[in-house]
Amino acid sequence: LDNLLNMAYGVKSRFSPMAIDGVTSLAGINIPGHAGSGWCIFVYNLAPDADESILWQMFGPFGAVTNVKVIRDFNTNKCKGFGFVTMTNYDEAAVAIASLNGYRLGDRVLQVSFKTNKTHKA
């Protein structure tokens, strides 16, 4: 992949997430959990009072986290029980998932996995 990016985009040392977007869309590749600028991780069974800072604290030690999002109820502003974390490196994301899936946070056991693209059947 590094050689491909170097030839196509002149990328020398670290790849650009923007270049990955171009490569994946041009090739028609759809990688579940891959958001173009990183690997999207689904975190389920968060407490109603959970916020973004807890996700940063939990996932940060495993590698580069680019984004965290707790999904909130529009009316109450309480966490709906799940959130998403985006990490730039696949291996670091995989280790975070393996380490944090089944992790007890307070009185809840978290379910952590790569985000999957759901396909709806008509």
In words, what does this structure look like?
It comes from Xenoophorus captivus. Residues 39-117 form the RRM domain. Keywords: RNA-binding. It holds the Pfam family RRM_1. Helix content is 31%, strand content 25%. It is of the alpha+beta class and 122 residues long. The protein has a four-stranded antiparallel sheet, with helices on one face. The chain has a two-stranded antiparallel ribbon with strand order 4-5. Mean pLDDT is 79; it is low at 4-31.
Shape descriptor: globular
Structural class of the helices, strands and pairings? alpha+beta
Placed side by side, the strands forming the largest sheet appear as: 2-3-1-6
How would you characterize the largest beta sheet? Answer: 4 strands, antiparallel
The SSE string, one letter per element, is HHEHEEHEEE
In terms of per-residue confidence, which ranges show pLDDT below 50 for 5 or more consecutive residues? 4-31
Name the average pLDDT.
79
Helical proportion?
25-40%
The rounded Rg comes to 16 Å
Strand content: 25-35%
Distance between the termini: 37 Å
| Quantity of strands, as a count | 6
Summed up, the helix count is 4
Organism: Xenoophorus captivus
Pfam family, one: RRM_1
Keywords: RNA-binding
Domain RRM: 39-117
